[in-house]
Design a protein that fits this description.
Helix content is 58%, strand content 19%. It is of the alpha+beta class. The strands form three sheets. It has a three-stranded antiparallel beta sheet with strand order 3-2-5. A hairpin with a 2-residue loop joins strand 2 (14-20) and strand 3. The protein is rod-shaped and about 160 Å long. InterPro entries: Band7/mec-2_domain, Band_7, Band_7/SPFH_dom_sf. Keywords: Lipoprotein. It comes from Urochloa decumbens.
Length: 330
């Protein structure tokens, strides 16, 4: 009914392109408008002023990168660990890791292809609505072409690591180029983001394996250092233990000597006519029988073969005296 009466409604955040007999007349703002169709006035189309987003995936290559020597060391370190643990782990898995890493190195030498995902937010300008409506037939393809052009001119100048680190610079370059190009067509570039940089799956796997190998090398170094510290502390503990044990044995023997001396002196005073030799022979006999008693009482003691009989004590005493005399020839 409204169209019959020449009434047209334009929604909010939208403008309408008015034509008179096929020629552009004006831009209609949101609201209700009267267009008498009988004199050739009509709506050619509508143009949204809302912000729209276009995601562009662009495949390109990065600059040739030198092979870091530490990466090669990490690779061979990982392979060495695989050889050592071949009986535990599947050797094919280690070889696959190694070959993937080598493939990554070769691909780096021959450029790494990556997929750059750019997100462009844009909108039509109300004061340039006629340019936006008439000058471009496919806005999305036009923006996509400019994004491809800028990314493929910028990313090949960067290493793979630099491409990740300079995402904001790439986005800024894309936005500046789009702003200059699209402003002539009545569009405003609100913001441009580089949301992702995706290397080839084989390259990503190889990079992950290289990082894992580097961490394994650090872990092995730290483990070796920890074992070294444990060995040092253990040796220091054993040395201290042996020192204290020696001090204890020395004190024990000193106490025995002091006890024997006191016994000899006390016995000589209480039993007149006895000599020190007689007393020592008697002490040795007593020690001999105590030793035999302890050996016989213990079920876990080892067999000890010594000259048996009380007379053997005299021979032991003679051997001790002879040793003392030889040690002190004076």
């Amino acid at each position: 009914m409204g169209q019959v009466l020449g009434l047209v409604q334009v929604d909010q955040s939208t403008v309408a392109i008015k034509e008179t007999f096929g020629k552009f007349s004006e831009v209609l703002e949101p609201g209700c408008h009267f267009l008498p169709w009988c004199i050739g006035q009509q709506i050619s189309g509508y143009l949204s002023l809302r912000v729209r987003q276009l995601d562009v995936r662009c495949e390109t290559k990065t600059k040739v990168s030198p092979i870091p020597f530490c990466f090669i060391c990490d690779l061979f370190f990982a392979e060495a660990i695989g050889m050592i643990k071949r009986t535990i782990l599947q050797s094919s898995r280690i070889r696959t890791t190694f070959l993937n890493s080598i493939a990554w190195i070769l691909s780096v030498q021959d450029n790494v292809f990556v997929t750059v995902v750019a997100s462009v937010q844009y909108r039509a300008l109300a004061d340039k609505a006629s340019d936006a409506f008439y000058k471009l037939s496919n806005t999305r393809e036009q923006i996509q072409s400019y994004v491809f052009d800028v990314i493929r001119a910028t990313v090949p100048k960067l290493d793979l690591d630099d491409a990740f680190e300079q995402k904001n610079d790439i986005a800024k370059a894309v936005e500046e180029e789009l702003e200059k190009a699209m402003s002539a067509y009545g569009y405003e570039i609100v913001q441009t983001l580089i949301v992702d940089i995706e290397p080839d799956d084989r390259v990503k796997r190889a990079m992950n394996e290289i990082n894992a190998a580097a961490r394994m090398r650090v872990a092995a170094s730290e483990k070796a250092e920890a074992e070294k510290i444990l060995q040092i502390k253990k040796a220091e503990g054993e040395a201290e233990s042996k020192y204290l044990a020696g001090v204890g044995i020395a004190r024990q023997r000193q106490a025995i000597v002091d006890g024997l001396r006191d016994s000899v002196l006390a016995f000589s005073e209480n039993v007149p006519g006895t000599t020190a030799k007689d007393i020592m022979d008697m002490v040795l006999v007593t020690q001999y029988f105590d030793t035999m008693k302890e050996i016989g009482a213990s079920s876990k003691s080892s067999s000890v073969f010594i000259p048996h009989g009380p007379g053997a004590v005299k021979d032991v005493a003679a051997q001790i005296r002879d040793g003392l005399l030889q040690a002190n020839p004076q």
